[in-house]
Every structure is written in C-alpha cells, then in structure tokens.
Amino acid sequence: MRILLANETGAVPHLGCRAVADAHARLLGRAGHRVVDRLFLNALRGHEEGSDKDVVAAIERDGPLMARLADVDAVVVNGEGTIHHGAGRSWLGLLQVAQGLGKITLLVNAVLEETNGFESMWPRLTDCTVREPRSWDAARRLGARPRVVADSYLAAGFASTGTPLAGDIVTDWHGQCAASGAILEWYLRHEGGTFLPLRTPQAADEWAGLPHRLGAARVVITGRHHGVYAAIVAGRPFVALASNTYKIEATLEAVGLARLVVATPQEAVAQRDWALENPGVFRALAARLAGGRPLPTFAALGSGGPDREEEEVAALAADVARHIVAG
User: For residue 108, what are the contacts with CB-CB under 8 A and spacing of at least 6?
Assistant: First the structure.
C-alpha cells in the first residue's frame, strides 16, 4: 500500500521523536507497506487558521498538496505530542480532506487532550490508536472508535551502543513545565546524579543506544514522556514528573503505577526509594504495556506484501536528510 505519513517527526532534535519515526518505518515495512511521501512537523502550519471549514478549504486550495494526496492509498497522521489543547488542527483537516478523496485514514500514536472540532472526520477514521486510556475516552467522545496501543517507541530499532550511565540519571523536562523543572533541578542539587538532556541534537543522533546506556543506572528521574519509556525499555526503576499533557500520568495509571508521578521534591525522594525497593516491578513493564506481542499500531492496513523493513528505514533516513537540506 502506498502511504503518505503526516506529522513526521524524524527530523526533530529529540530522541523520542527520532525513535518513533524509526518505529513507524519498521512497523510499516514489516507489513509490506511503502511510505511514498512524508509531511514533516509544521509542514501545514499555514493551513490551520480560522474555522474547521477554513482549514479544510485551505488544504483543498493547495494544488500540490492535493496532488500528493491523490497519489496515495492511505494517509497516516502521527498523533505524537501534537493534537492537544487546540493544536494540530491542520492534521485533522488533512484527514477530513483525505476521507473526501476516498482514502484510508489513520490517526496513530496519539495523545488527545482538550481536542475538538472536525466532527464528521472522527467517525470516518479507518483506525485511531491512542497511547493511554484518558486519550481513549477523549477519542470516544469525539466519535472515533479508538484502540489503546502502547507508544510506538517500543518498536524502535534499539542498539547496544554508547557508554553505560551509572547512578541516578536526571533528564530534562518539557519547556512548558517549569514546576517539573524546578523539582529536577532540586534533585540534582540535593540528591546528586548525572544530568542527561533528551532534546539536543547529540541526544537525538544517539537515540538508539539510550536504553542500553540506562541499563546500568540506579534510577531514572525524568520529566519526559520518552524518558519514562526509555527507562521502561531498559527495565530500570524510574520516577516521573508531569509533562505538557496527561500522557505520563495516564500511561502509568493504566499499569497501576500512578504513584510514580510526583509533584514535590519530597515525593520524588519517597517514590525513588519505593522504586529502588521494588525493582521487579520495572523488569517486565515493557511487555505489560505492549501486551506481550508486537505493536498492532498499523493492523488496520493489513498486509501489503513481503517484508521491506530495511528499505523503509533507509527511505526514512533519505527523506529526513532531504528535509534538513531543504531547510
């Protein structure tokens, strides 16, 4: 099947975004599908002003974009970190326009919070996968038929590369979450540890080795959603702080670990101690989240032919390189 993948984050200097892009290429390639076109993050920024009708009209007036839509069988929107608090409207409009053209439409790996509009689009989605139950509730209210599937991060092609990190590892946090940042800075000052920023060009380039590097850590203290997932893949104890949506809280609620999301320095220390006393909780968490099977993120597309995973990973790298050169 020929696919246009929209909201592609493979060029973002964030290791979680890079891992998710890799995972989507691998999952689609294993199923025999071909990503023939990509719309990168912010590609439709100029199409999201005004009402829902205005967004749709702006897309329909974009002749080159409409030609690209006409050339594919399916339009897949990566919902990672984008469609919340009124943002991501151009991607929702794109799905609605694609449906009008008779295309298969998927919204995948999404967090949905304070999302509304495009009422006719949601029930017509071929599939809608969200990462946690709160987003499932939101999608149901919007009229979709959602499925909860763990973050695509779990399907990325990780590698045993990089220098292992020992002791307490403290990551950065989302820029909108000053309170979480203050607690992480407090922890570094008073409890010590190694600071590991996740949204830097170097971290993004070295994304594949992060779980391996965390494998020797005593504990991970993180304000990043994909910091949580990296610790989960590594099987290491962790403590989390809130990000810019409820994605972290909702993910951990779903596996009975809401206690690990903390809001004060004292809670961070207390939950760290609990995590260290209960290491077995973290060893099998990745399998629990994935349901013990390969992620069914793109199950609705079925099989498109022989396995072409390596070709799709190479195509992603080439598309990202072209996008970066084009600016």
Answer: 24, 76, 77, 78, 79, 127, 128, 129, 149, 152, 297, 298
Digit-by-digit pLDDT tens for the chain (327 residues) are: 999 999 999 999 989 999 999 999 999 999 999 999 999 999 998 898 999 999 999 999 999 999 999 999 999 999 987 898 888 999 999 999 999 999 999 999 999 999 999 999 999 999 999 999 999 999 999 999 999 999 999 999 999 999 999 999 999 998 888 999 999 999 999 999 999 999 999 999 999 999 999 999 999 999 999 999 999 999 999 999 998 889 999 999 999 999 999 999 999 999 999 999 999 999 989 888 877 789 999 999 999 999 999 999 999 999 999 999 887
- C-alpha span between 288 and 38 (Å, rounded): 32
Check if the beta carbon of residue 2 is closer than 8 Å to that of residue 34: yes
- Which residues is 167 bridged to in the sheet? 217
Strand partners, 241: 262
The structure tokens listed for 44 are: 């439709």
Round to whole Å and give the CA distance between 192 and 2: 50
- Helices and strands in the chain, H and E counts: 14, 11
Element (H, E) at 250: helix 247-254
Closest by alpha carbon to 112, among 96, 128, 124?
Answer: 128
Cα separation, 30 vs 21, in Å, equals: 14
Which strand (E) or helix (H) includes residue 110? strand 104-110
0.90 surpassed by pTM: yes
- Please check whether residue 316 is in contact with residue 22, taking contact to mean a CB–CB distance below 8 angstroms: yes
Q: Residue 199 has what DSSP assignment?
A: S
List of domains in the chain: 2-149+296-326 (3.40.50), 167-289 (3.40.50.2000)
